[in-house]
Amino acid sequence: MLKTNIDYSVLLDFFNIEPKSLKDGGSIEENEWYFKIFSFLKSKTDLQIGGYDSNSEFSNLINILTSGREDSKLYPIQTNSVLSKVPIIENNLHSLYFSELYDSFIGEIEKKCGLLIGNRDNYKRLFNDLICWGKRDKITVRKNSVETLKNWEEIKPYILPFTDVILYDNFILRDNNTIDENLLKIIEILSEKANVQFNLIIIYEVETFLDNNKKKQNYPKLKVHEKKITDFLKTKKINCSLGLIETDNKFKEHDRGIFMNYMRIYSGDSFNYFNIDGKIITKGTDIQFQYYSNPNNFNIAREALKNIKNIVTEFSKKLIPSYIGKIENRLLNNL
């Protein structure tokens, strides 16, 4: 579950914009938006309130947020701002911050920790991103559909800040002709939302061939793939720590996914959607944006990451190298 750290003044601003009821002339859209965020704060995130002024009237808000929290926690209220110190990434990987601080301070902290951070001026927009408000959370990828994803640029509005990424796709590096238009393009799009150097692990299935005795043998390409991706990162000046893992049939995760701090991108097929001409080559699938503002999405991603952690551990111990680069990733900690 995510942890939301929010200063009193931001929280009070949110409560003060509660819309009129439908009976009193409020709109359906306004009420749906407000109560979706209210529901998130009340029961779908652990909550830390900071920047509390003891002279302020706050008891009613506390009563509202205390009851009906289900599995979420409400931490003791603190007088200091939730951003009185720069968050330590390792301890706050799935934490978000809404502070009373000004934009200039927020920007400096973002550059130091890379987490999702806002203030009173932009918290509504960031909440919109977190709950996928006004956007489809699933997009079809099909040749004959007018609603199809047309290129990787279209996922930009869906990406949230992050510090760590794990991309799991057995076939993402299988065809040299699709790497530039898919994997490298995905990395480039994601990197635009990274405020700090990020860790990236790419896990895929090793290629095989039949030897003279018609027995299936592995054909590892770790160094080839690492060079291609590393050269791309340098050319694009992407600040990334890269690790590659080649798996085999015995140990693998079936589902394709891109895991980050606040979301998982899921695909029913390999992420190799487009060819060199930008035309769709998948037989038909959907791409889903699963935000952890829904605790169920968080829990499902966590279970998948547990399996991925076992795979990383298994292949890091092999005598014949099955990985290259840095395979440490904070998303695999504390599972």
Count the helices. How many? Answer: 9
Shape, principal axes of CA atoms: globular
Query: How is the biggest beta sheet arranged?
Result: 8 strands, mixed
Gap between N and C termini, in Å?
A: 12 Å
CATH architecture classification name of the largest domain:
2-Layer Sandwich
Task: Report the portion of residues in β strands.
Answer: 15-25%
How large, in whole angstroms, is the Cα Rg?
22 Å
Number of strands: 14
Structural class: alpha/beta
How confident is the prediction overall: mean pLDDT?
91
Number of domains: 2
Could you say what the CATH topology of the largest domain is called?
A: Endonuclease, Chain A
Provide structural commentary:
This protein is 30% helix and 21% strand. By secondary structure, the chain is of the alpha/beta class. The protein has two domains: 3-130, no CATH class; 138-332, Endonuclease, Chain A, CATH 3.30.870. It has an eight-stranded mixed beta sheet with strand order 5-13-12-11-6-7-10-14, sandwiched between helices. Strands 2-1-3-4 form a four-stranded parallel beta sheet, sandwiched between helices. Strands 8-9 form a two-stranded antiparallel ribbon.
